[in-house]
Design goal:
By secondary structure, this protein is α+β, with helices and mostly antiparallel strands. It has one domain: 3-Layer(aba) Sandwich (Aminopeptidase). Helix content is 33%, strand content 20%. The protein has a four-stranded mixed sheet. α1 runs antiparallel to α3. It is globular, with a radius of gyration of 15 Å.
């Protein structure tokens, strides 16, 4: 989507494309009944689990980065959750929304920060998830 829909966020000639970079767009998470509503940092717990899961899947798939487009409020939530997106290109207003393109390091250091900030202990993936990723 970054290249085909939101290329205006990239500087002239800038291309983000690699087999080890996946794109994460339209992230949405809704908590289950009985699940904590918020993490210690005030971030939605289900979103924190989703972000930890993205890091875990990225490790299984051998990814080096995740690229994403987000609006200003989402960018702030990602930072509060423990993600440190590197803004690429030039943030621009698209309609009424300030929009950013960012690269995230989904490595173990990021996963540990996300877990520490959210209070998540251990893996969030199902025990047989490795087989799903590598299939």
């Amino acid at each position: 989507m970054l290249r085909d829909v939101f290329s205006c966020l990239l500087d002239d000639g800038e291309v983000i494309e690699s087999a080890t970079i996946w794109e994460g767009s339209r992230i949405c998470a809704i908590g289950a009944d009985g699940q904590p509503g918020r993490t210690r940092s005030g971030v939605n717990y289900a979103l924190a689990e989703l972000l930890v899961g993205i890091c875990e899947v990225a490790a299984l798939a051998g990814l080096t980065r995740i690229v994403a487009v987000c609006d200003a409020p989402t960018y702030r939530v990602l930072k509060a959750a423990g993600c440190e997106p590197d803004v690429i290109g030039t943030p621009r207003r698209i309609g009424d929304t300030m929009s950013y393109a960012g690269l995230f390091d989904p490595g173990e250091a990021t996963r540990r920060v996300l877990c520490d900030v959210s209070g998540i202990d251990g893996s969030v993936l199902a025990p047989d998830a490795k087989g799903l990723v590598l299939a």
